[in-house]
Predict the structure.
Amino acid sequence: MRLTRTEEILSAAYAARIEVVEALRGVALGSAFAPLRAVTKNLEATSSLYDGAPTARTYVALAELATCVVFLAEWRDAVLSAGADAQRFLIAAQERAATWTNSFGAEASFGALAAVGKQIASLKSVSEVAKVAAALAAIPLPVGLYRAEGSGRSSPRIPDEGADLPAKSVELSVAFIKFTIDGKPLAETHYISPGEMHNLDIEVRVSRWPVGATALIFEPVTIEHADAYKMPVFSIAAPSGTGPFGLKQSGRAAITIPNHFNARPYEFKYVARFEPRGSEQPVETIGQRTLMLEGMDLARQPLTGYQHIDRKLIEMRNTLRVSPRMIQPELADALMLAFPLANLAAQSVQDNVFNSPISEEEFQKRVRSFLRSHPMIGPALEEHPHASRGITDLSFRGIRLELKAEKDTNLALADCERFVPQAATYAVGSGKCLALLCVLDGSPKSKPPLPVEDGISIFIHQSSETPVYVLTILIQGNLAKPSDFSR
Amino acid sequence: MTEDRHPYTVRLAARGLATLLPSDKTLSAFLVPELVAKLVRANRLLEGRPDEIEETLNDIRAVLVQSFKADPSKVDQLIQDFLIGASDGGAAELYKIYDKVLHARRFGEKKQIPITEAHRVAFRRLVVAAAEATTDEVRDATSHAFHGEPYDLAPVAAEEIDLLLGSAAVLDGKLTALNGEKVTSKDESVWERQARRQHLLSLLESFVRWACISAAKAGQTSLEAVLKILRSLPDGSERLIAAIIGNFPAMMRTTEGLIACLPDFYSAQVGASPLVRSYAATAMGEMRGTTHDNLPSLAYEAFCAQLSDPYLIVHKAAIRALDRFDLPEEYDARARTALSSCIVHYANERPTDDFLVGAIDLYARSYVGKERMARNIGARLVAMLKKAKPYLSAKEIQYANNVYFSATGYADLLCHVMNDRDAMDIYHEDLIERLAELPPQVVLEKRAELMALGAKWFLQYRLISGVVIELLTSSGAWSDAATFAKSQHDGVEDNTRNTQLRLHLALRMIACSFEAAVESDDLPAIGKLSKEFRFTLAEIERDNAANEDRRDPLRGIRRQD
């Protein structure tokens, strides 16, 4: 609560505090309690001068306990003069003390006063009254100089009884239910072939139709220039009946210019509005209304030559692209290195390229030779650069490639995870957040090979806040003859 | 009468005409040349006090405005004829006629005044004159009209988008020439050149603002007109491009505007020019919530990249913009990383940069919060704030419930900024309130500094010494409070003027000593101080009574009953 200190009121308020101390001292010395009763009431009244300042509460707390002392003094007088029903004063004092404890006892600033409250609660003999009064008189209190206005004190406005509350109308909302492209539900990143026309259907739900609106328009918002795409503007005429309405509309969409592999997909965000302009507009637009369209032509520009592997690599790219702390140029370099390795993995399954167990050195020699022949990679491929007190196998523009060869045990992709920390260490040592791991499983096989794309994945190594991504490719070699499985 | 040299007579004639014109339109051409001549050559054709002449010119101008509205082409031609050979002051007076014609329409009188040819002519003349002004008088008379927004003049401005942006391009060229110009004239100081540069830039931005806001109000065709010009601007026009991008928030309020502008906005976000990128970043912060809702993710990604842009102008603009809108949650991690890197860099390299304080505050509010402020991060942020200019740090910690309250070192920072004169001059009320919120444990640790602060500012901001007493006594430091109160009392010279002040300070001193005596159970002192308090109260009453009349602020004004 914000307090604004205003006038200084010490001169008007503090005398009441002094009087209470003096009166308590009097009670402690056996004097009459009447003066204490009077000054206690005065202190209570004075506390209101402080308004929102903490001193107001302090003085109220003191006045409450001083009132208890008044009752105790009355109890003492009644007991000592054999007055009737003397016990009621003690009960009153103790009940008030209990109430005081509930109200103030938990506050640290009232610790000393709370001790007096406890004393009152456990009082048994009139001889202890003087001690209680003396103890209360001996508690120093904060000196409050200022009255304070608290802005947080205003209470919320309560509507008048019987007042008419405004009728709550149904909120005008538009919910995007579904987009389908060529009959297929929209994927997170949807692939469409560029340069061809596709069906784009929209399904929405509208809570109600605004009065006077003639049509509901859906327009695509994008950062792309208009000549790069052709997306439909959906216009749905006013339906009959009362809402909510489920509405559908069809249109035609095309990506005119294909995406490069390293480019972000086209993004279209559909915005809803009612026509004409002056009519009520949606308060809320909910649901998935963003279309991420990848207009990459994998048939004309394949990545590995194997379409199922290309799709896997694109999925991995999409995941890595939005990963925390990912540096996009590093990702582009890592993917460029991953394409031929994935191709090698596919070739290996297709032609059993590695038809017998080989050593890690031999594997490295063959991979190096394979990559060297790749025009985009060969010239920049390095061998054995140092990183993190170790020697990496191969490296492309600072992206480290760790190679492993297994001769005896069949490996699944999950088994490659044990090599991940080493690759991650090289990445960290080179100031990168990405590394590649290529594992050759040259062990004799007694089972059919895994689909190649199931041997490609990303492992995340996280030893701190910053994750390191290890793009892992399992190459399956030394394959069994298919006819062996029929025997 | 119009040929008279006496202002009063000429004024009478002008007012007579102004009264007759609404009922007799045929009078619109009557005496116009004479009145225009009077306006242009007032220094020679009128003799009188400057204020009389000024009032006369206002009346003449009012008649000419009416005549212009009635027959714009004829009066405009006359003004153009007189402009040839007119003095700078005379030309300025003539341009004020155009300004007056537009003024009534611009500020909410559209129901009374439909747009006419007079508005169009006056607008065109004023735009051209402002762009081509070469003297201070004409500059002031013409550019004045373009301050702020076009308001109800937007339909007129929307018809002249080409003229507005073309004139802005002319000004851009002049700015470029001025920047490349060597100082040749001995008469022109650095400040004068700077003023010229500032005038050109301000007018350029005004023209662009008018064009964009008017286009946004007028609709799609006008928006397309602005965008067409934007796209046709050569690479070197980055100042003009930036100015247009800076006004995109107004143009992107509608869905059509958003769709039309977004490709150019994105190009500006990721473009080569740091100036344009910075304007795009600023524009991001100026957009409405609905516009933000409809922005595609790529626009946000580009904005996140701007947060760590290597150019100061860009990342500063982006971080300032970040404080003005809520970035979608999925970008929080990136924004947070960029902001923290930026803060660390500035704290190491430019610890006194004004920008750093704003960035720290944004980070603290958005990504740290009160709960985490008690950890190391809070202490680090507070340490950085302590190195900044105190009045800047004071600006951020002045608010109640500020995020830094639980940070280690907050009290140090507060005392640090409160020791600074600039910080106290600007924020003393709030800072003293923040001081009053310090918890008892901290007060006890910092009691010496608090008492020093109270002593330092006692004469300027008396509240602080009272707050220090309240703090000390609330924290159990009654003896310190008594000592402090006594030093305050003793520090005020004992003279008649200070009597009341000293008496009230004495009350404070006695109250603190009384509580200290209560604490130590010093009965004789309690009795003595009680008497002293009552005696001082009585003294205050006595002094008030004795000086009641002298201290009455209405003394001598009140009527004796």
User: Anything to note?
Assistant: The longest helix of chain A spans residues 54-80. The interface with chain B takes residues 2-5, 8, 10-11, 14-15, 18, 21-22, 25, 54-55, 109, 137-146, 217, 219-226, 264, 267-269, 271, 273, 285, 290, 324-325 of chain A (CB under 8 Å).
